[in-house]
Specification:
3 helices
Length: 164
């Protein structure tokens, strides 16, 4: 009798929507390296100034399939000369389904870039080393904090737009 009761309960209970997050593929979407003055800049000491620009974007490419791209541009300058410019767009395809809109934003804006970061870090380091320069490792990035800051900035901007 208890088996019949369990079967009836199982049939009567609606299935909860399944949330799914799966990495499908990681790949370099674009990469470039420029050393306009070559690795022999005729400097007595290698002490460059670094500038880094980072950007993320997410695009829906198919139902529940998102391409997330983490773009890093790294420039090294010695005095007024550009030693090198390395640019990598590391991409990943992520299957994301069954999440609320706010959770989806957090996944695409924080979790996915965090997953891609070790790959873009290795690609930048490899390009720099193959260009004949001392190895460079990108510093760690807190994507959770960056996402929170961007959401706060968007909220402030929306609030200012409503006031004007």
């Amino acid at each position: 009798m208890s088996d019949e009761a369990n079967t009836e309960v199982a049939q009567a209970a609606p299935e909860a929507p399944q949330s799914e997050l799966n990495l499908q593929n990681i790949y370099i979407k674009d990469a470039s390296f420029e050393a306009p003055n070559g690795p022999n800049l005729q400097v007595t000491e290698w002490n460059p100034q670094f500038g880094m620009n980072m950007n993320t974007s997410a695009t829906l490419v198919a139902e529940n399939m998102h391409e997330v791209v983490l773009s890093i541009t790294l420039e090294a300058k010695v005095a007024d000369k550009v030693a090198y410019l390395a640019e990598v767009k590391q991409a990943g395809l992520f299957l994301v389904r069954g999440f609320e809109v706010e959770d989806l934003r957090r996944i695409l804006g924080s979790f996915c870039p965090n997953t891609l970061f070790p790959y873009v870090r290795a690609a930048i380091s490899d390009l720099v080393a193959k260009g004949g320069f001392p190895p460079f490792l990108l510093p760690p990035v807190n994507f959770d904090q960056l996402f929170a800051q961007s959401m706060e900035a968007a909220a402030r901007q929306a609030q200012q737009g409503a006031v004007n």
